[in-house]
Every structure is written in C-alpha cells, then in structure tokens.
C-alpha cells in the first residue's frame, strides 16, 4: 500500500504540490503561534499568552477550513482514477487505505518542513513584543517540540477527514456507478449537507445577535465570529449556490453571440463543486481581513467615544517622567483650578479563575488605574452599581462590568490582585461601570496600592494657567481632545503584534486561495486539450477562462461581503451603539482588489500554459 501511495503521489505530484505547500505554511503558522503561547506560560508573560491564545482561536478555524478545502480539491480531481480502481476490483476499504497512506506521506515530508522553521520564526516577533510592552525586555522565547506536535495533531486528522470525504463518492457506490459518476458532478446537496448548512447558517445569525443581548467587547467578539460560521455555511451549501447563480447567468446570456462566455457559464453550472473550492478561499480572505480590521477599528473608536464622554476636565497634564507631589500641589493651588485628579497606570495581574490547579493560567495581565483626588467630579465612567464616592475608602476598587462577565461577582465581592514584587491584595468592589474601554477595567485609590506609584497624568478642571509647568522634562499640557487622541493612538500602537499576526494569517489565506485556483485550473489540461482539438482557438480558451475567473471573483466578493455584514453591524452596535457596519474601507478596497488580481492571475495564466501547443 505504501509503495502504491508513493507511486500515486509521484504520478499526481501536480495536484499534491499545492497540498504540500499549504501543509508547510499551516504547520509553520501554528507552531510559531504555539511558541508564543508556551513562552507566555513558561516565561510569566500572561499578556503574551492572552494575545497568542486569542489569535489561535481564529487561526485554527481558518487553517482547518483551508487545509480541508485544499486536500478535498486535490483528491476530488482523481475521482476517475478511484472509480477505475473500483472497476478493476479494489474494495472501498482499499481505496480508503490508499487515501490515508497518501495523506500521511504528504504530511511526513511537509509537516516538519513547516513546523521546525515555524518554531524559530517566532523569534522574529521579539522586537514587536518588547516595544509593545507585551513581554519584559530580555525575555527569551521558549522552543520545545510541543507546538510542532500540536500542529501535527490538529492538521493531520483534518486533512485525512477531508480527503476521505472527497473519496467517499466512489467508495459508497457500486464500481459501475462510480465509473459513471466520476466524470460528472451532482448538482444537488445530500440531506446531511443541507442540515449542516442550515445549522451553520442559523448559528452564524445567532452569533451575530450576541452584541444585542450582551453589549461590549465580549458580545462583539462573539458577534465577529458569525462571519466564519456564515462562510462555513456557504462552503457546505456552495455547490447548490454556485449552480443556481450560474444557471441564472446562463439564462441571462442565452442571447449572447459570444460562445466563450456561454461555455464558461455552462462550465460553472456543471462543475459547481469545483468552483466552490475556488470561491470559498477567496471569500474567506476577504471576510477575514474585513472583520478583523473592523473589530480593531471599532474598539479604538469605542475607547475614544467613552473617554471623551467621561472626562469632565478642561486640561490634562501628562509627564512620562512622573509628576511630583509638590508639582501636583502647585496645580491644585493655582488660581482658577476647581478640581484635580492624579492618575497612575500600574501593571498587575488579576485572578480570573478561582481554581488553584491551573496555576498561572488563573491570572491575567491587567493595567490598574490608581487615582487620587476628585474622582466623581472628573471621571464619569458610567457607573451601573455602587458609587465612586466609596473609592476613597481603604481596600476598595471599581471594576468594569465586562471584566466581571461570567464571574458572578458584583459590589461587595473581592478581586484578587498581585503585583510585580509579589505583593497580593484583595480589595472590595464598591462600584461597577460600563466605560472600561476608555478608562480601563480597574480603578482604585492610590492609597490602596502596596507602594506609591509615580503619577503620570493630572486631570484639571477650571481655567488655571498651567503654562508655567510645561518646562518640566517631558511634561505637556493638553486639551481633553488632544489627550483623547494621544491616548487612543497609544492604544492602537499596542495592537502591533495583533496586526502582524493578522497580516500573516491573511497572507496564508491568500496563498491558499491562489494555490487552489492554480491547482484546479492546471487539472483541466485534458479538457482544454480536447477543446483545442475540436477547433477552439487559444484566444477563445483564454476568453472562456477569463469569464470563469470573473464569475469566481464576483461570487467571492458577494459571498465574502454578505458574510461579514451581520458581524460588522453587530460589532458596531456592541462597541459604539450604532448600526453602521464597522468597515475599514481602504482595507476592504485593497482586499477586494487582491481578490480580483488573484482570481485572474491564478486562473488565466495556468490556462494559457495548459493550452499551449498545436491543436
């Protein structure tokens, strides 16, 4: 069996090259992210663990979909070979074992080529990790075989299941039926496929409605995943959707005298499963980039809205080097000053899981805003329970509602904190508020801290002249609008790692989409050769493939756009309370242009090469 599998892979290397490259890229991506997660756990960098874990959720979903689609495409092209094997006496079990051996053979070579470099490629992110404050300077990323093993354990079963499902058509019917059906694609969907498509569709709609029930970042994050569920639903129901769209396009073009156009649309109608595997990766590429950039932009916009609405100051004095007590006293006593609030940002860890068995996983990195002065007068954080007046008491803390989600805690309960020096505190919650994106998830009186923290910001209400203080090294006096803009820009810069990881994931999907299109088009060499023999010119073939590429790109743009609209509307509502889709239009335009470019180049060029030569 293994000898036969090696011969099959060698004979059909053109179709396996694409699968090989995707496995290499997928293994590298997952193993690199695994290094980040493991380093965060072993190196006491919980923020790194949080970011890598959040990215892993999206990456695993995307990688599984792409790997499954790629192997299904590669194996589906060989339906005739499998049918012939059945006709000459091969049993369904033998065909399945052969498919298993071929997939295992590809993984035996491809997985190490991707996973091992991926382990070391994670080190390229170290400068971004340190500059963003995600890890302390000097932290060395931990490299062990575990991420590579984890990537293999995820990818191999995924590819094997997809390959077996692709070969299922010829292993569940009689040999004669397998031969008859190998050259044609069924237009309809099986009952199980219809059920799965409906389940995914309604699950996506339900997820999109989460922010209307649970506003904020938690609900918005849940709503954003609806795009991937809807894309998955379209992938399952794709053959029926593509066939219907192509059928209507054929009806609309019956009067056309352009034979290549009609032939292209008839091909699209007759081979809807083949086109689905080409359309879905492109739609996923568009949806992934649009949703992720929309979510990031909405978070920044929401933080800006909350901060501007909640600040009652007239001026803000900021000093990275710290504001001394004497300087703060001068500001408070300056003529025209009505109220002053001193603020410090203090790094700490918060217990998010009461179970001791999980160790450091029970703690999450957080930034505490330590305040002193006129808190209720200058900060309107949207209190929903308790009162900020009680924050002046010893051992108290105010907490955002989102940070308490699913904890069951409220006013009167305690929050476990621990600081870099090992000191632990358990202050009592005296207020719960809504504007956590703008003001942070935790507010406490500076006197509650185990040791004094340098004041970096003074919020001042009144018309006091603070110009005399601007001579301090690094000190600035800003208006509220200037401070909000600077604070939001600083928060956006901290998303650098997330942006890099997103770019890598989008690039992976783009390569997968282009690879799938090239693989599918190259596999049509016999079809194109037959058309050449019956008199079709190369120009007509190029026109036919160009029309097919237009059909693919339009379908991908429509599918990708429709799948993200519910997610972006729900994210916009959850973050800022509006219904306008949270779309980063320049990014969407660039992604749409990339879809067009990939579809044309990856289909037309291979077709021209495949049709080269005399008829």
UniProtKB/TrEMBL annotation:
Membrane topology label: Multi-pass membrane protein
Keywords: Cell membrane, Membrane, Transmembrane, Transmembrane helix
Membrane-spanning ranges: 48-72, 103-126, 146-167, 195-214, 226-246, 275-295, 500-520, 541-565, 585-605
Cellular component per GO, a single term: plasma membrane
Annotated InterPro entries: ABC3_permease_C (IPR003838), Membrane_comp_ABC_pdt (IPR038766)
Entry superkingdom: Bacteria
Pfam (any one): FtsX
Occurrences of domain ABC3 transporter permease C-terminal (ranges): 54-175, 500-612
Cellular location(s): Cell membrane
The keyword Cell membrane appears for this protein: yes
Stated name of the protein: ABC transport system permease protein
Organism: Promicromonospora thailandica
């Amino acid at each position: 069996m293994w000898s036969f599998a090696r011969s099959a892979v060698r004979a059909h290397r053109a179709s396996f090259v694409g699968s090989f490259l995707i496995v290499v890229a997928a293994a590298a991506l997952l193993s690199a992210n695994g290094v980040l997660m493991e380093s965060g756990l072993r190196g006491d960098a919980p923020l790194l663990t949080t970011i890598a874990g959040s990215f892993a959720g999206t990456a695993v979903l995307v990688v599984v979909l792409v790997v499954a689609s790629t192997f299904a495409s590669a194996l589906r092209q060989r339906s005739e070979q499998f049918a012939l094997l059945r006709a000459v006496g091969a049993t369904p079990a033998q065909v399945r074992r052969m498919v298993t051996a071929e997939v295992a053979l590809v993984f035996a070579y491809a997985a190490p080529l991707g996973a091992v470099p991926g382990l070391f490629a994670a080190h390229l992110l170290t400068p971004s990790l340190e500059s963003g404050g995600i890890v302390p300077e000097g932290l060395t990323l931990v490299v062990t075989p575990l991420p590579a093993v984890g990537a293999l354990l995820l990818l191999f079963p995924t590819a094997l299941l997809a390959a077996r499902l692709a070969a299922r058509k010829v292993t569940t019917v009689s040999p004669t039926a397998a031969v008859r059906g190998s050259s044609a694609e069924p237009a309809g969907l099986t009952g199980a496929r219809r059920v799965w498509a409906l389940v995914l569709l309604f699950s996506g709609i339900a997820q999109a409605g989460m922010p209307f029930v649970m506003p904020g970042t938690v609900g918005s994050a849940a709503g954003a995943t609806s795009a991937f569920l809807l894309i998955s639903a379209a992938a399952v129901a794709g053959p029926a959707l593509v066939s219907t769209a192509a059928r209507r396009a054929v009806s609309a073009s019956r009067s056309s005298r352009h034979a290549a156009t009609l032939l292209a649309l008839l091909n699209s109608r007759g081979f809807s499963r083949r086109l689905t595997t080409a359309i879905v990766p492109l739609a996923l590429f568009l949806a992934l980039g649009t949703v992720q950039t929309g979510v990031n932009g909405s978070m920044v916009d929401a933080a800006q809205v909350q901060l501007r609405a909640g600040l009652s100051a007239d001026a803000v004095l900021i000093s990275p080097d710290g504001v001394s007590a004497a300087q703060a006293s001068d500001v408070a006593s300056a003529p025209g000053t009505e109220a002053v609030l001193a603020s410090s940002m203090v790094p700490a860890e918060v217990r998010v899981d009461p179970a001791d068995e999980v160790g450091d996983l029970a703690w999450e990195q957080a930034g505490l805003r330590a305040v002193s002065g006129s808190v209720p007068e200058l900060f309107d954080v949207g209190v929903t329970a308790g009162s900020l007046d009680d924050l002046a008491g010893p051992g108290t803390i105010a907490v955002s509602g989102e940070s308490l989600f699913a904890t069951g805690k409220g006013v009167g309960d305690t929050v476990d904190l621990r600081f870099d020096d090992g000191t632990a505190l358990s202050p009592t919650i005296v207020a719960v508020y809504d504007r956590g994106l703008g003001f942070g998830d935790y507010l406490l009186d500076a006197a509650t801290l185990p040791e004094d923290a340098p004041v970096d910001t003074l919020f001042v209400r009144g018309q006091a002249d603070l110009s005399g203080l601007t001579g301090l090294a690094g000190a600035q006096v800003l208006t509220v609008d200037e401070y909000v803009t600077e604070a939001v820009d600083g928060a956006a810069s901290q998303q650098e790692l997330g942006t890099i990881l997103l770019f890598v994931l989008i690039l992976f999907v783009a390569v997968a989409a282009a690879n799938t299109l090239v693989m599918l088009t190259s596999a049509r060499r016999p079809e194109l050769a037959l058309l050449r023999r019956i008199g079709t010119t190369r120009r007509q073939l190029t026109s036919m493939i160009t029309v097919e590429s237009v059909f693919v790109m339009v379908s991908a743009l429509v599918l990708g756009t429709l799948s993200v609209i519910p997610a972006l509307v729900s994210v916009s509502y959850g973050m800022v309370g509006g219904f306008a889709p949270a779309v980063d239009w320049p990014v969407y335009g660039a992604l749409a242009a990339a879809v067009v470019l990939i579809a044309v180049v990856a289909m037309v060029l291979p077709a021209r090469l495949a049709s080269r030569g005399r008829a």
